[in-house]
Amino acid sequence: MSEHRVLDPTDLGDHEVLDRLMSEIGDDAILDTTAEQLQSLDALLPTPSSELLDEPTRWVHYPWRRSLVRVLGPRGFRLLRLDRNRNKITVGEQDAARRLRVGVVGLSVGHAVAHTLALEGLCGELRLADFDDLDLSNLNRVPASVFDLGVNKAVLAARRIAELDPYLEVTTFPTGIDEATTDAFLADLDIVVEECDSIDAKVLVRQECRRRGIPVIMETSDGGVLDIERYDLEPDRPYFHGLLGDVDAAAVAGMTPREKAPLAGRILEMERITPRMAASLPDIGTTLSTWPQLGSDVALGGASVAAVVRLFGRGTPPPSGRVRVGLEAIIESTLVDPYRG
Description:
Layout: E1 5-7, H1 12-25, E2 30-32, H2 34-42, H3 50-53, E3 58-62, E4 67-71, H4 74-81, H5 91-97, E5 101-105, H6 109-120, E6 125-129, H7 153-164, E7 169-173, H8 182-186, E8 191-194, H9 199-212, E9 216-220, E10 225-229, H10 249-253, H11 257-268, H12 275-280, H13 295-314, E11 321-324, H14 327-334
């Protein structure tokens, strides 16, 4: 579970914990802007009910920051934080999205995905799985800082989301996804977003999602490739749209690294990757440590997956398929000048 703790001062046990923390932390690490928050809540249109305006505030303890922050109660906090979503996302759609439970596997591109889903209030529960720790080489695309180096990526994403919305339920799986963790990770999920590097994990996730009837979304940074696999509607649908043929987790686990190497290319349809990625591939392992990724492409991935999840929340989910939303290609091919007509 998340490391932060929401404390209700009206609860005797929480009140005692809060008193202890305040004495330990000191004034410099205590933030209280609830007067301004209440003023903003009262100014909303339509005006919130007196019940919402009188909702007891909470204190949130963020141990990694050694800080306490006072915030509005859960209903007022959500109403005010998401007010500017209206009516691109209606109140009814926001309530429906709150019932979605989403799992994200792989927290590099997945970090952008998870944070965007939380930012827009597109789910009521997030589960985050990644075994890896943040490395300095990740800071070209993961929105973190040098203070976060060495922190598990799933934990890091959960911390950032907790600072955005302390009421959103987030569970971390810092050992990643394998046969020992899939049951707990996938239980009762509505959507899985798969963003891991391991072909073994990619196939395992799809195998278990297909068995449970859970749709899978994947965004691949190069060229903005967005995949939707509706195992909830198509229980016999082949993995990766059939691009790997008849393959399962056991078969992939038995392959050598050399045998696995071409599989990623088949998934991505190598003839359709971007020119710069194609030019980079021969250099991987010689002058390049691994394949290149850009922060802007990762941010686009977060936006693309969020667009799909929004449609699920609206009750109009898209079918299985693949689309490419690479911005450079779109700009180069479809740019128009409104001034000249």
